[in-house]
Amino acid sequence: MKHNGSKYTLLLGTTLLGLYFQASGVHAATTDSVTNNQQSVNGNVTPMVQTNKDEASTPQTTTDWSDPAKYQQDIPVQILGINDLHGGLETTGSATIGNKTYNNTGTAARLAGHLDAAEESFKAANPTGTTIRVEAGDMVGASPANSALLQDESTMHALKAMDFKVGTLGNHEFDEGLAEYMRIVNGGQPTKQYNEAEMVYPHVNSGINIITANVVQKSDGQIPFGMQPYLIKEIHTSDGKVAKIGFIGIETTSLPILTLYDNYKDYDVLDEATTIAKYDKILRNKGVNAIVVLAHTGVATDKDGNTKGNAVDIIKKLYQIDPENSVDLYVAGHSHQYANATVGSVKLVQAIYTGKAYDDVIGYIDPSTNDFAKNSIVSHVFPVLSAEDAPNVKTDANVTAIVQDADRRVAPIINKKIGEAAKAGDILGRLHNTPTRENAAGELVVDGQLYAAKKAGLPADFAMTNTGGVRADLHVNEDRSITWGSAQAVQPFGNILRVVQMTGSQIVDALNQQYDEDQAYYLQVAGLHYTYTDQNDPNQPYKVVKVYDQNNQPLDLNKNYNVVINDFLAGGGDGFSAFKNTKVVGIIGQDTDAFINYITDMTNEGKLITAPVMNRKIYMTAEQLVSEDAVNSSVDNNQDATLVTGTTNKEMDQPTTPTVVLPTTAGQPAKVIQLTTQTVAKANANRADVNSQFVNLTPMMLDKASVTHQTTDDSKQAMLPQTGDDDDLTWLLLGTSLMSAIGLTIINRKRKQA
């Protein structure tokens, strides 16, 4: 009785312990996502995340600014910020801020006018106040022709005219190497030959102090090109008050997957939060407690009022490192989205991108502490409204003149007709994706790259490009003409295209890598089409289950194929590691030239440009796959799906009944089992039989297989990807059973010892 009681007590205890750990993990994750106020591992409290409302469209109509009368002894400070301008001198579009969408926002001249109006409004209420204009990276790169053809120097002219004083590095500042970016910031002469328009363009110092604290040279650990990690600005008011405010510059640690290898290989990008904590302490030791971080790290506030992203995580980590930090404002960038929140006591803002919005943050510095007075900071993000929507805001004449001058200089190049479309109307790009992340402009680009390879004598089977490199819709004029400038706006980088050799297995890996990181990075593909479905992996919720070439033949995992990619992907850009270290078959040329030449050649051949049919990525549920005889997959012992080439239905040229491939084990060859209703039923009946041929089919596999054969009338309806928690329960039961088994093993060992 004693032995049996101990045995069953331990059995029950281990079972309950397993349940406890599982439940605790789920509860902690759920609670943290809701309250953002859990205790961290080192005892520090993770700061609350509170979204700030943006209901007004202008500073003048905003009613929650702090009352200047309460801060008469303090120094008023306004921070006006932008991010991700990308040379958008004339870019317009919609801007969603809070729960409202504004149309026809943007252009540099309108941005300048709105910044001036915001400063005037601030000064009207705070006559002794100081305004500082800042930017959070990606001012250049991926730019329209009137900036790109001038090496983005026209954009730097516009920023100078808008009086921006402090900025930091984004990933696109590395597009042509950091040396070239610093040249245009400082107004140096070109170091190599560009087009005639750029060579005669005035090269002037922008007046912007570029600061970066976490980009250091690998060789000596120093910040390159004489840049400083921070900037201290001393503020003097007309009534004799003096205060200091500090700025820290931060680059995203994702830089290695966002630019070419040659452009970042000489640098290390240090952890953002650790670096902020380091220089925050240095500034405090210098008596500077009013601190602003300019960081090219993403964040977003959604329509439901949730603010999430890398910037939030960085601030939370900062609080864990130093709960007493003195960071007051975090101006974010990179993710091209709207955000306005308070994380702990840090105001966090991001003003979409391409000049469609701007940050307006007002606070009051106590000169006795050199810190912002408690609760005095109010942050907002406002749209850059058109002249029609905001006629009281003047369009800046100086910036208008800069843009018009740039247009005039590049006009002979960009207005040249290169081709013709079958009909008028833009061919839409990545802002108009299908649910499967396809867009017409992107697929036209890869069609052109596949064509360019064959034209260069380097026959390729497939072409793939990162969608982030497809920067705009392809504009088609009313007379159906397509200009050089329109094509260049779609493919502005000038990345080098290469043909590389990849196995079918590597290609599947690349396609699957689209489905991690919440599909933040994805591909446009040509020469192939594929089907993908759900899988029970929170890190990668979807998997590719079949791939066909353009002749509708299944991909052979062991065969070598030639694939066109750009050098950004070849370096593992956007996290696509499957493309790294692939054998180079040949070099084609620049992606910009390939796209322009494709449009020209197709037109000359009488093939007018049309939007491709977007059917290259097909999502299907497991039920749809089985019911339509559209899958032939194998599942290994860990339920990881891989692609196989199996038998096909000759008439339909589609895979037949789904199979499970049991891997080779000691003394047993690999087995292939057809997942018919009968085999699934037999496997269910034999789960407890260790000698069964189905020993490698886990309960989870069998349950899924059973479900796939329970088709309904809706199984063929279009469905959006869904995920569920059913598998968590299965794992919980398996885990607790395992713990019980361990407990019994320990008891048996003790009994033998006794």
UniProtKB/TrEMBL annotation:
Disordered: annotated segments: 49-68
InterPro entries: 5'-Nucleotdase_C, 5'-Nucleotdase_C_sf, 5'-Nucleotdase_CS, 5_nucleotidase/apyrase, Calcineurin-like_PHP, LPXTG_anchor, Metallo-depent_PP-like
Keyword Transmembrane helix: yes
GO MF: 5'-nucleotidase activity; metal ion binding; nucleotide binding; UDP-sugar diphosphatase activity
Signal peptide start and end residues: 1-28
Membrane-spanning parts: 729-747
Composition skew (Polar residues), residue ranges: 49-65
Keyword list, A-Z: Cell wall, Hydrolase, Membrane, Nucleotide-binding, Peptidoglycan-anchor, Secreted, Signal, Transmembrane, Transmembrane helix
GO biological process, one term: nucleotide catabolic process
A single cellular component GO annotation: outer membrane-bounded periplasmic space
Domain Gram-positive cocci surface proteins LPxTG residue range list: 720-754
Alphabetical list of PANTHER family matching this protein: 5'-NUCLEOTIDASE, 5'-NUCLEOTIDASE-RELATED
Family: Belongs to the 5'-nucleotidase family.
Record's protein name: Bifunctional metallophosphatase/5'-nucleotidase
Species annotation: Limosilactobacillus rudii
Source taxonomy: Bacteria, Bacillati, Bacillota, Bacilli, Lactobacillales
